[in-house]
Design a protein that fits this description.
The complex is a heterodimer of chains A (425) and B (469).
Chain A (H helix, E strand, L loop, with lengths): L6 E8 L3 E2 L9 H16 L8 E4 L11 H7 L9 E3 L6 H14 L5 E8 L10 H12 L3 H8 L23 H11 L4 H20 L25 H5 L3 E3 L6 E2 L7 E11 H7 L5 E10 L12 H12 L9 E4 L4 H12 L1 H7 L20 H4 L6 H16 L3 E8 L3 E9 L1
Chain B lengths: L3 H6 L2 H9 L22 E5 L6 H10 L4 E3 L3 H10 L4 E2 L11 E7 L10 H7 L6 E12 L7 H21 L4 E7 L8 H8 L9 E5 L19 E5 L4 H12 L3 E6 L4 H10 L3 E4 L7 H13 L2 E6 L14 H24 L3 E10 L2 H5 L5 H23 L2 E8 L5 H4 L3 H9 L9 H12 L10 E4 L8
Parallel strand pairs in B: 1-2, 1-4, 2-3, 4-5, 5-6, 6-7, 8-9, 8-11, 9-10, 11-12, 12-13, 13-14
Helix pairs in contact in B: 3-4, 8-16, 10-11, 11-13
Chain lengths: 425, 469
């Protein structure tokens, strides 16, 4: 990688995130991503520009959207000669596109590109019932009308119920929330600390809106100016009243300290330093390195969302850094419990010595540096759009500070984690 | 010998009836079988701020491959990590009903004053009702009379009240112990921790054990057969508790030299023959008995490693009605003979390095008993022996300890009147009598080469009897 170039993050934009079946209920992934690409084009004056590539993706995707990102580019103000492709790595998608585009910039394969992601849980793809699908395919393959009628005669009313995408791990049948409830219990994470983190997330995001800090990061869309999930006036008292939704009656996880199903999109402009200089676009930050990891949650060797806890130490080791060598920590708040489990794991001698093979714990972080402009619990979490939100937020934070380093940690379904280090330009 | 009441209350109907009318409900005690793990089920290991025994405890938990959880305590987490124990986390705030433990092990060495005794409450309050049947509660602290700071000594001494009361509260076959560890003796706790965690200590509860510096170096022990290559002398080995002691020491790998009176020769030979040991018939009160025993051991085995003074008799009568013969006989057999044998063995240097002398006392020796002035005197004398000689013997690389059995189910107790027997059986925390093997296992713990730091203890095997408590 010695011959690689520096990867500049120039900035990003997103539409406000909305709750499932909220204001974006009628908006498709293509609508939202196209609007976001146009907003980024406007922000950086890229009209008609042919970029190296656009990489984006969606976790919940219609089969007709097989070429989603390319279709969005064709429908956007970008030059239609800009190639594009879809990436899907569950909740890690948005950061993974940043890493992919950034890597091509680093290798000199492209000069500039856009990374992004979009998701809708409202305009969700419904599939025909699996039995019905088999009957229809059998009828389609039939060589005579008699065979066709015979096949179709097998259709039963209950087969008309569609397959709805489920927020469950295929190999365990447990929802992500249920998996996280197991983690929370294993790590002894209490209700109060989860609620506290959730309230802080809301208050910090509210402050970011109130001070206008998010003005150039969020473009109003379909009448929505702020993230719909944001509860400006939430409090520990209000949070404490919510009933647990995961982990049974004794559970500690509520709708308040978990992210809701959301709709939204985000995009980030990435380039070489030279490309940015030529266009007079200030470089906000550099993408230094990234690391993904997976864990075996299927055999219960590790919790579903613990992979970032493994990825980050590998990053740190590669750069000879300690966990404390950062000015900003952007940790995706899939659930408050996920963040707290990760932080506790890094503080825990047993985890760090037995699981990570380190001599001593990574230690604690300064919580004042965590998700300083709010996190996913407040903003919402349209799966593939979260990475772009976080990269753009951290780039701006580093740019404003002018120096320093930031850590990104995003957990993903399937027992994966995507993490990255960025530095102020 | 069978405890029919216990069998009855453990039938489905018996359980309902005994619960309804509040009768004692003794749980069948789980006892050790060779090949079993030391402890089956999760151990909750806690170490408050400033606790210093945690690393040694964690090493033992690692060695016995226990499933371990700890509270969110830095000392416990660090000790577990350093010992290579993949300990889970237990937070009572979020624990479910199903979070239960086979053992609670609490390092109380960090309790330095009376206010920090609260640490013990904070740990046990949310966990004590999570102890499973046949569970174990073990508290480890520092020897109070060796502490310079009087306030710390007070706090450490206070732990005795805690563990003894826990023993009376836990029920369902569970036990509670306190282990005081001298400064620098941390490396000597493993045999004791293993014993108290395991079903070997089934009938031992409410005890306080002191562990000090090792009297001799030891290492590389085979925990399944710790007495391999050792020679053990057991007096009164032909039947009852003595037979059980011989069996357990042989199981642990020792060559057992059984001693009994000539009248018991056939029974004795049957026991030692079965165990691959050897028999020596001698009346231990004979004036030349010590000399004969020492010569036998030196000639045939080049010495002895473990000496168990088990032979004993009762001749009960109230003092005013007791004839002189019965007084003399009981004192001679129970107290004078062990004393004389020990003196001979040590003067002829027959006891090898890292040797063990284990005497059998009795709760009558602690509490006294009407009709047993002779017996109680002899058994209290045994305690005196432990106190007087354990120090001097340490200098000769030997430990001296005693067991003090309570109600042990033997032919002797089977012959007791029903009411007396029932009272004896139930008046303890485990609400049942012990078995000879319970005494034998306790002796085997003292006898282990790894118990080199266990010296001068009198450990009761009485289910935490109310008598002499």
């Amino acid at each position: 990688m010695n011959s690689s170039r520096r990867v500049a993050v120039l900035g990003g934009i997103r539409i406000p995130f909305a709750r499932q079946n909220g204001p974006y209920a009628q908006a498709s992934n293509q609508d939202m991503l196209t609007a976001t690409l146009d907003a980024l084009t406007d922000k950086f004056g890229l009209h008609g520009e042919v970029l190296g590539e656009v990489a984006a993706g969606a976790v919940l995707k219609h089969s007709r959207d097989f070429n989603l990102t390319r279709e969005c580019v064709l429908g956007s103000k970008l030059g239609p000669e800009t190639p594009a492709y879809d990436v899907q790595q569950a909740c890690g998608t948005g950061l993974e596109t940043t890493i992919t585009v950034g890597s091509k910039v680093a290798l000199g394969q492209i000069e500039a590109g856009i990374a992004g992601g979009v998701d809708t849980t409202s305009d969700a793809p419904l599939a025909v019932n699996e039995d019905l699908r088999e009957i229809l395919l059998e009828a389609y393959r039939a060589k005579s009308n008699v065979q066709r009628v015979k096949a179709l005669a097998k259709i039963r009313p209950q087969q008309l119920v569609p397959e709805i995408p489920r927020n469950a791990e295929p190999r365990t049948g447990l929802s992500m929330g249920e998996h996280t409830a197991i983690m929370a219990k294993d790590w002894g994470i209490g209700r109060a600390e989860q609620d506290e983190l959730a309230v802080e997330s809301h208050h910090k995001l509210a402050a970011a809106y109130d001070t206008g800090w998010l003005d150039d990061l969020v473009m109003p869309y379909l009448g929505q100016e702020r993230d719909q999930n944001l509860r400006v006036d939430t409090s520990l008292e209000k949070m404490a009243k919510l009933k647990p939704v995961f982990g049974g009656e004794e559970g500690t996880m509520t709708a308040g300290n978990s992210t809701p199903l959301s709709d939204g999109a985000s995009a980030v402009l990435i380039s070489s330093d030279e490309w940015a200089t030529e266009r007079g676009i200030p470089v906000q930050a550099h993408l230094v390195d990234a690391q993904t990891a997976g864990v075996d949650y299927v055999h219960r060797r590790e919790g579903l969302l613990m992979a970032p806890a493994y990825a980050v130490p590998r990053l740190l080791a590669r750069h000879n850094l300690t966990l404390q060598d950062f000015d900003f920590y952007e940790i995706h708040e899939a659930f408050a419990a996920q963040v707290l489990c990760t932080l506790r794991a890094w503080e825990d001698p047993v985890f760090c010595q037995e699981r990570l093979g380190l001599d001593e714990p990574l230690g604690s972080i300064d919580r004042a540096k965590l998700n300083v402009h709010g996190g996913s619990i407040a903003a919402g979490h349209p799966f593939a759009a979260t990475g772009g939100r976080i990269v753009a937020t951290l780039a701006k934070e580093l740019h404003e500070k002018g120096t320093g380093r930031g850590l990104i940690s995003i957990c993903a379904a399937g027992g994966m984690g995507v993490t990255a280090i960025m530095e102020a330009a | 010998m069978a405890d029919r009441y216990q069998q009855l209350v453990n039938t489905p109907i018996g359980k309902i009836v005994s619960k309804q009318i509040g009768l004692p409900a003794p749980v069948p005690l789980k006892r050790y079988e060779p090949g079993q793990p030391v402890i089956e089920g999760r151990v909750l290991f806690a170490a408050g701020p400033g606790a210093t025994l945690a690393p040694a405890i964690a090493r033992t938990l690692a060695a016995v491959e226990a499933e371990v959880s700890t509270p969110l305590q830095e000392e416990a987490r660090q000790a577990a990590a350093d010992a290579g124990v993949e300990a889970g986390i237990f937070n009572p705030e979020v624990a479910g009903e199903e979070d239960r433990f086979q053992a609670l092990v609490f390092d109380a060495s960090g309790i330095v004053d009376t206010s920090s005794l609260y640490e013990a409450y904070a740990f046990f309050h949310p966990t004590i009702r999570r102890v499973r049947a046949n569970g174990r509660v073990i508290v480890l602290g520092r020897v109070p009379d060796q502490l310079e700071d009087p306030e710390r000594a007070v706090a450490q001494r206070a732990l005795e009240g805690l563990t003894r009361s826990i023993g009376k509260e836990v029920r369902r076959g569970s036990t509670s112990q306190l282990v005081y560890v001298a400064d620098g003796a941390e490396g000597q706790i493993e045999s004791t921790l293993r014993f108290f965690l395991s079903p070997k200590s089934a009938y031992v509860s409410g005890q306080v054990v002191r562990i000090g510096a090792a009297v001799a170096q030891w290492d590389g022990i085979d925990w399944e057969r710790p007495l391999t290559g050792k020679v053990a002398l057991v007096t009164g080995a032909s039947r009852g508790i003595g037979e059980s002691i011989a069996e357990v020491l042989a199981r642990d790998g020792a060559h057992v030299v059984g001693v009994d009176v000539p009248a018991q020769e056939r029974e004795l030979e049957s026991v030692t023959g079965r165990l691959g040991g050897s028999a020596l018939t001698v009346d231990i009160t004979d004036h030349d008995a010590p000399e004969r025993i020492a010569s036998h051991l030196l000639e045939h085995h080049g010495g002895v490693d473990v000496v168990v003074h088990n032979a004993g008799v009762t001749r009960d009568k109230t003092l005013g009605r007791m004839n002189e013969d019965h007084w003399r006989m009981v004192i001679d057999i129970n107290l004078r003979a062990p004393h004389r044998i020990d003196r001979e063995l040590f003067s002829r240097q027959a006891v090898r390095d890292n040797g063990r002398v284990v005497c059998v006392s009795s709760i009558s020796g602690i509490a006294g008993n009407a009709g047993q002035t002779n017996y109680s005197t002899s058994k209290a004398g045994i305690i005196g022996m432990v106190q007087a000689y354990s120090g001097p013997l340490a200098a000769r690389q030997c430990t001296l300890n005693a067991v003090a059995p309570g109600f042990i189910e033997t032919q002797m107790t089977a012959a007791m009147p029903v009411a007396t027997r029932e009272a004896g059986r139930r008046m303890n925390s485990l609400q049942q009598g012990g078995l000879p093997v319970d005494v034998a296992e306790t002796i085997a713990w003292f006898a282990s080469p790894a118990s080199a730091g266990v010296n001068g203890n009198v450990t009761r095997v009485c289910g935490q009897s109310l008598i002499g408590a």
